[in-house]
Specification:
By secondary structure, this protein is α+β, with helices and mostly antiparallel strands. The chain has nine helices and six strands.
């Protein structure tokens, strides 16, 4: 659980975050997995802190700051990789997991590279399709089915992977699982009744396992909004 302190911690990395933003969510998931403490600054985008904007003028979350504000990371995947390079007790970066991926040495790919390629495919392809799908639903557009089908092209591949093993890359959890989780969660909420009957039983099981986990509950806990000179929230 996060702890509130009356004086600011000057030595911990700082994460500017927004509770329901999927990009900020994936950053918090990775940091939670490391069990490394950070200062969490929950904000609202309608009132962005001047200090955050000074550090990252693009004004989006998450933003990670450390080294007395000498280093700023403002891309969610980069924050995940930074965190897991500090501490990776579950081997989410698959440094030790290649032998579990394929039994045939001659066909074994580089699991880490394969994982990053999959994440990039979703980051640069699925997300734009997902936004179109969400907009089609929200504004009652007539291309809802086409937008959903465009998303399904990506999810079918995940279903096939989950038919082969428990997690996306292998039988062991990896960065790919927690990187894609927030966006697949968004997809599942667009047309809830359709999703519950869609031909993706393994995907539903995978997602439900995360949504019902203690980890997800803690990552999605509602913390006090940060204002300058307020109490410090330590996460996790």
């Amino acid at each position: 659980m996060a702890q509130n302190q009356s004086t600011q911690s000057t030595c911990l990395p700082i994460l500017y975050s927004l509770r329901n933003c999927p990009y900020a969510m994936r950053a918090r998931l990775a940091i939670f997995k490391t069990q490394q403490k950070i200062e969490l600054r929950d904000i609202v985008l309608s009132n962005k802190p001047a200090q955050m904007l000074l550090l990252s003028p693009k004004g989006t979350v998450p933003v990670l700051v450390y080294g007395n504000e000498s280093t700023v990371i403002d891309e969610s995947l980069d924050i995940m990789l930074w965190a897991l390079n500090q501490s990776d007790p579950d081997d989410l970066l698959c440094r030790q997991g290649n032998e579990q991926y394929h039994s045939q040495e001659s066909t074994r790919p580089n699991l880490y590279a394969d994982m990053l390629n999959l994440i990039a495919t979703f980051d640069h392809g699925f997300k734009s399709k997902l936004e179109a799908y969400r907009c089609a639903k929200r504004y009652h557009e007539n291309n809802l089915i086409e937008c959903r089908q465009a998303c399904e092209e990506y999810l079918q591949g995940i279903e096939e992977r989950l038919n082969q093993h428990v997690f996306i890359m292998s039988n062991k959890e990896s960065l790919a699982d927690i990187a894609l989780l927030p966006f697949i969660r968004q997809f599942a909420k667009v047309e809830r009744q359709w999703y519950l009957q869609a031909p993706y039983p393994k995907l539903r099981q995978w997602l439900n396992n995360y949504l019902q986990s203690a980890m997800f509950t803690k990552v999605m806990a509602k913390y006090p909004l940060w204002v300058e000179n307020n109490q410090v929230t330590i996460f996790p």
